[in-house]
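User: Hand in any protein.

Assistant:
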Amino acid sequence: MPYVETGALFWPDRVRLRQENPIWAICGLSFEPGASFETGQLVIDKARHWRALHLANWMNQDHRQFDDMLYGDKDMFYIAWRMIDQPFHLIRHPPRLIEHCFGQRDPERSLATRAMEHDFARLGVFHQHWEGMGDGKLVLLPDHRIGEGARDALRYWCLADGADGIELRLFGGGVLRCALHQGADGAWRGAVAVAEGTVTIRALGDGPASAGGVSDAVAPPRRDGTGWQSHTDNLAYRYEPVPRR
């Protein structure tokens, strides 16, 4: 696993430092065209990366010396790791803006999971049954939001690799609320962690979703991650957008 191998997981931003940024020469580093870090989340083994963390902390404490070249701690982590020559793993999936929030991907998913998620986005419309609460329509939008049929605590969806196979995960309030597993009959079942019992979800039809506010012109997520690319505005002059893949 990347974390076991490197001891440091970082997620990408939508921008990168320009080649003409003076920070490269000041820190004795060669220009790298990769994305800057987006440090809203990070996973670090402090014992293995204590020196790099100390350097990033020193740069933050003396941030006025770097404010004209770097944009906050996200770049200070990146520069510190490069200067100390510490290993790290940068998640390859680009982020996306979702309702004014940054959406980031898990480290890696299997090809089978990504292919099935593509099919879910193509189908779009499902049938849901809540134990003791009846049936209804459920629309899973291509941008991972839940459309018609969303409940108060469930707003987003995705497919992920779980310990017992592929899981249909439902999120709300920023946390995982439910992980459903597919049974032999093709239905997905699981318990919801909001005192609402269990839910069963079945696919309906085989065409693109066009109900519940879903437009036929909206493309399903790409398996290579490009569907999660988003536009970047108001860049600082030391930055540039990360090119689309």
Remarks:
- The chain has two domains: 2-96+228-241, 111-224.
- The first strand starts at residue 8 and ends at 10.
- The helical segments are 2-6, 23-26, 50-61, 73-84, 111-123.
- The two ends are 24 Å apart (CA to CA).
